[in-house]
Amino acid sequence: MSRYGDKNLIVGLDVGTSKVAAIVAEAHPEGELEIVGVGVHPSHGLKKGVVVNIDSTVQSIQRAVEQAEQTAGCRIHSVFTGISGNHIRSLNSHGIVAIRDKEVSPEDVARVIDSARAIAIPADQKVLHVLPQEFTIDNQEGIRDPIGMSGVRLESKVHLVFGALSAAQNIIKCIRRCGLDADDIVLQQFASSYSVLTHDEKELGVCLVDVGGGTTDIAIFINGAIHYTAVIPIGGDQITNDIAVALRTPTQYAEDIKIKHACALTQLASTEENIVVLSVGDRPPRRLSQQILASVVEPRYEELLKLILQELQRSGYEELLGAGIVLTGGSAKMEGAIDLAELIFNFPVRLGVPGYMTGLTDIVQNPAHATGIGLLLFGQNHRHIPSLENRSLRSVTGIWEKMRVWFQGNF
User: Fold this and answer.
1) Please, which residues have CB within 8 angstroms of residue 250's CB and are 6 or more apart in sequence?
2) How far apart are CA 13 and CA 185, in angstroms?
């Protein structure tokens, strides 16, 4: 978060495989967020959500941040950023403690959360999130906010998210080399859930699928809390590559064709719409119908959706999704994607468009910016928590502050 004059600014930095987006919002006293600046630049230096070239990533971040600063008319000093990649792991854990004074205090809640997160993880892994699901007091289950309630034994169920320490360190290193501080680093699908999911969907049970360039991120919410997360190392770039190979056109033109003309369902594609395809080398351009393009795109998209379905079946929560599936991300807005997803999943599917914002919404009201907008909303709820470098997740006060913010944001 940064200050500029009397403006209270929050910045979300979405460092993705295909693009880097910096979004600046002004937080008003009444709690409203107004978008005042946006910067987007092609991403170079990431592969499947993980930094593989620091210099290229730094340059991409700098360009996006500079553009956002020009639009907003301010200087950016710190950002909330996301993290993804096949290194992300998660599990549900359980903790039990005795209630000290027969009445649940914030310290008791902090201790039981600490107990639930006290599991052995490899030294090269870092805990990213400890997300409470529910509490139990003396066998009374389903308690959302236990503070002030009487009892002897307090139990908690939490969802732990952890990832490769090196992946998180490399993202922070890139941000610092741009002269910025990292306020916090957030799991991308968790951030996206802030901007595209409703409270009712989280209560009924919903699966959020964020289809990005290099990865597809999955988060399942049951009874208002996150219960399952996963990352599939396949995204829209695979479709671009298939188009490039099948149509024999350079990758940058294949990406442009995908964005402007691709359809994920052949039966919805037009036989009359002609697409100009630039060839490699000095060969002349060719013309193809949208239906031929769709015949290339549909098998790859179907393969991706079937991988998502397998992950959903593996989670064990497939029968609990009363609100169905929300598809978001840059590759989700392709024509026919929602129709194909409903055929594969046999669930109601809707397109997740970021909301809960004012200001330059015409620019960012796009599924591709679900994570960037979500980072702003996450930052609004967590901006009073100490910065990532200085915060100890094991401190009682730090855990209680996270709990307080979580209760306010969910109930």
Assistant:
1) 244, 278, 280
2) 10
Residue type at 256?
Answer: D
Domains and CATH numbers, the chain: 1-87+162-197+353-410 (3.30.420.40), 88-161 (3.30.1490.110), 198-351 (3.30.420.40)
CB 304 within 8 A of CB 240: no
d(CA 305, CA 311) in angstroms, rounded, equals: 10
State the DSSP code for 336: T
pLDDT (average), residues 284-310: 94
pLDDT category, 313, cuts 50, 70, 90? Answer: very high
CA atoms of 196 and 326, how far apart (whole Å) = 8
The pLDDT of residue 3: 42
Which among 72, 7, 9 is positioned nearest to 39, based on CA atoms?
Answer: 72
3-state SS, 104-128, equals CCHHHHHHHHHHHCCCCCCCCEEEE
Calpha distance 406→12 (Å, rounded): 19
The rounded distance, in Å, linking the Cα atoms of 80 and 184 is 5
- Which band of pLDDT confidence, cut at 50, 70 and 90, is reported for residue 392? very low
322: number of Cβ within 10 Å: 13
Tokens 């956002």 belong to residue: 68
User: For the stretch 191-215, what's the b/e string if a residue is b when 16 or more beta carbons lie within 10 angstroms of its beta carbon?
Assistant: bbbbbbbeeebbbbbbbbbbbbbbb
Q: What is the CA radius of gyration of the chain?
A: 22
Asked whether residue 162 carries a pLDDT value surpassing 50, the answer given is: yes
Quick check: pTM over 0.70? Answer: yes
Q: Give yes or no for a contact between 308 and 231, defined as CB atoms under 8 angstroms apart.
A: no
pLDDT tens per residue across span 129-155: 999 999 999 989 999 999 999 999 999
- Give dist(CA 161, CA 92) in Å, integer: 9
How far apart CA 348 and CA 107 sit, in angstroms, is 42
Q: 31 in the Ramachandran plot: left (φ > 0), alpha (ψ -120 to 50) or beta?
A: left
Half-sphere exposure of 97 (CA within 13 A, CB side): 23
- Measured between alpha carbons, how far is 336 from 99 in angstroms, rounded to an integer? 54
3-state helix, strand, coil in the chain (%, to 5): 40, 30, 30
Report strand pairing: 50-51 vs 46-47.
antiparallel
What pLDDT does residue 406 have?
54
